[in-house]
Design brief:
Layout lengths: L7 H24 L4 H21 L2 H18 L7 H22 L9 H11 L31 E7 L6 H15 L1 E6 L2 H5 L6 E7 L4 H9 L4 E8 L4 E4 L13 H28 L2 H25 E3 L1 H4 L2 H12 L3 E6 L4 E3 H22 L3 H6 L6 E10 L2 E8 L6 H10 L5 H4 L4 H6 L22 H10 L3 E7 L3 E9 L4 E9 L2 E6 L3 E8 L4 E3 L2 E6 L2 E7 H4 L11 E9 L2 E7 L1 E9 L13 E6 L5 E5 L1 H4 L1
Helix pairs in contact: 1-2, 1-4, 2-3, 2-6, 3-4, 3-5, 4-5, 6-8, 9-10, 12-13, 13-18
């Protein structure tokens, strides 16, 4: 490892970001190879990765990215046509680059031989004469600025850029500056010339001659948007130079390791617990000065909590951007035509939750490709377009994020699911009589249940759906499935924004205090005892025309089994995965912010409990696991 090892994290973050964008651009390029902007974008990403890898002395990555950059240069010049064989080798190069960068990230020595692939890239690139130097977008070759027919210089802005002394990726930063300036004007020339800048044959400064209508402020912003720029001098022809402050004084963002954010969230959780205790103490003693101080502390901790939670939020695009390539490869393997439509990529969710829903979404998309979308022949026979559609969307609903996977495929036969469940002994015929169509459909989430006669190496409709359901429940979310035979399937994942801190409803059952996550509660109803009905041996009520089973928490939680004799009692109507239930409680104590602590040791995995929290009086209260109760 070189002396630049301390910069490894920065290199990995930048390389992964460029690979993500490259993957997206490459997928779009496959659909429409003639778009010049995509070729330019691919070139820039390859160039950036090459420069960073060269600075860090990752020779394999640098060499492979260089050959990819060279091929993209030939494509941009239209000397080579971006046919399917070229697109395929670009995908192959991308995959190998991703493998090599992953090896650096995991500090593993990847035993990968790049020579066969670089040789193939060179063969394609050398099929036509090489391009002239300085063909990068917005980066012309001349050393001196251009002149018009009268020999007069035709630029109106001269910009001198100085990079920081400790800048590692000189050529990369310089290239990004030139790219940004190329967006707001025409670059007439550079000193040193573009090829020398690309090869890092300059110290820390370089000059750009620009023709633009933008003012000095916007020019400065374009340059300062690039990391590790120390200062910018802008000289407008006929005017004195304007000094632009160092970027270090105006940096807008920093990269923070997720581990630090986890620790910060834990500390905020402890502050919230102490805040709740202080509020309780204040209510007991009623000292004006104490009450005033507690009110101020309450507001401050709430603000800190909000800021930390915002810092943990990341756009769902962080995982959504992996799926177009996956669907593309699976569709080609299955010889199907599929369009993947993605919406709502800007929606943000807690990083921890986002990491945990990646696998469930992979299951859903693989199922949609393999057993949702029909073959071209089957779709023609059914009067459908040859190309199937899979839609992945994210949206925000109050304190939840809703992710949907929709396909226009063959749908799921609920009766077939039900018959298979009986055949395999997961339900009895007597139990089946009680199930409606939605509940029959949800049987697909039963571990080990599959409607496929033969397993495939892509997916199975029942293989993995139990994983999806379990993952949703562990996150305090909900899974619902709707499907119409022959018309398609819609799967909905409803997730909380964060798992660490939530709001809960405090309830009393016998002499014990429990907490029900407010996200699971639909409403609170007061029930008259004479309105309780017995349906097939189970207690239930009729709520606005719908039968809602009652769950006596006293009995379920193994508390005092005394007979219920109240003429009137309260119940929390909850819903999970389309199933509703009424949790009967002895007393409602009110709402409270709760810090969720996981259960370890003997209590881990005990049915009925999702975790614990500390109340204002310092006592521990269990958080009920609603999905396991309904």
């Amino acid at each position: 490892m070189s002396d630049n090892s301390k910069y490894m994290k920065a290199f990995i973050a930048e390389a992964e970001e460029n690979l993500q964008d490259m993957n997206r651009a490459l997928l779009e390029l496959e659909k429409d190879p003639g778009i010049r902007e995509l070729l330019d974008e691919m070139f820039r990403h390859a160039h950036t990765i090459k420069g960073g890898a060269a600075s860090m002395e990752y020779k394999d990555i640098s060499e492979l990215a260089h050959e990819m950059e060279t091929l993209m240069d030939r494509l941009r010049s239209q000397n080579i046509a971006p046919d399917s064989s070229v697109i395929d080798i670009l995908f192959e190069t991308f995959d190998l680059l991703e493998t090599l960068v992953d090896g650096v990230a995991k500090q593993e020595e990847k035993e990968v031989e790049i020579t066969p692939l670089t040789d193939r890239l060179k063969t394609i690139s050398l099929a036509e004469p090489p391009l002239k130097p300085g063909t990068a977008e917005g980066v012309p070759a001349p050393v001196e600025p251009g002149k018009d027919a009268q020999g007069k210089k035709n630029f109106n802005i001269e910009i001198k850029v100085k990079l920081k002394d400790d800048c590692v990726f000189k050529s990369v930063r310089a290239f990004m500056v030139l790219k940004n300036l190329g967006k707001i004007g025409e670059i007439v020339g550079t000193v040193p010339e573009a090829r020398d800048i690309e090869d890092e044959k300059f110290d820390r400064s370089f000059t750009v001659f620009l023709t633009t209508k933008e003012n000095e402020e916007n020019i400065g912003k374009a340059v300062k948007a690039v990391s590790e720029v120390d200062s910018v001098d802008i000289l407008t022809v006929g005017r004195p130079a304007i000094k632009v402050p160092s970027l270090s004084a105006t940096a807008q963002s920093v990269r923070v390791d997720i581990g630090h954010l986890d620790k910060l969230m834990n500390l905020v959780g402890e502050l919230v617990i102490d805040k709740i205790r202080l509020i309780r103490i204040g209510s007991i003693h009623e000292i004006p000065e104490l009450t005033e101080t507690i009110t101020h502390i309450d507001r401050l901790i709430t603000d800190v909590q909000d800021e930390v939670m915002q810092a943990r939020l990341v756009p769902v695009d962080m995982i959504f951007n992996r799926f177009p390539r996956m669907v593309r490869d699976l569709a080609r393997k299955e010889n199907k035509k599929i369009d993947l439509i993605i919406e709502g990529t800007e929606i943000e969710v807690d990083r921890t939750i986002l990491d945990k829903i990646s696998d469930p979404l992979i299951h859903l998309l693989r199922n949609a490709v393999d057993h949702g979308i029909e073959s071209v022949a089957e779709r023609k026979k059914a009067g459908k377009p040859e190309t199937g559609s899979i839609k992945l969307t994210a949206s925000r609903e109050k304190e939840h994020v809703v992710i949907k996977v929709l396909d226009d495929g063959m749908g799921i036969d609920a009766d077939r699911i039900f018959d298979m469940a009986i055949k395999k002994g997961f339900v009895t015929s007597e139990e089946g009589v009680k199930l409606n169509d939605k509940e029959k459909l949800m049987l697909i989430c039963t571990p080990g249940l599959s409607t496929q006669e033969e397993a495939t190496d892509v997916s199975g409709r029942g293989v993995g759906m139990d994983v999806v359901k379990t993952a949703m429940e562990s996150l305090g979310g909900m899974l619902t499935i709707n499907s119409e035979k022959g018309a398609g399937t819609k799967t909905v994942l409803k997730l909380p924004l964060t798992m660490a801190i939530a709001r809960g409803l405090l309830i009393m059952v016998r002499e014990e205090t429990f907490i029900v996550p407010l996200a699971n509660v639909q409403e609170i109803v007061s029930i008259q005892a004479h309105n309780v009905k017995t349906i097939k041996g189970e207690e239930a009520i009729l709520l606005r025309g719908e039968v809602v089973p009652l769950i006596r928490l006293g009995r379920t939680m193994g508390l005092d089994p005394k007979e219920e004799s109240k003429s009137e009692f309260d119940a929390l109507v909850v819903e999970v995965g389309g199933k509703r239930g009424g949790l009967v409680v002895d007393r409602l104590l009110g709402q409270q912010e709760i810090v969720i602590k996981s259960l370890d040791g003997y209590l881990k995995g005990v049915k009925g409990y999702a975790g614990a929290t500390i109340l204002g009086d310092g006592k521990v209260a269990f958080i009920l696991d609603v999905p396991s109760l309904v």
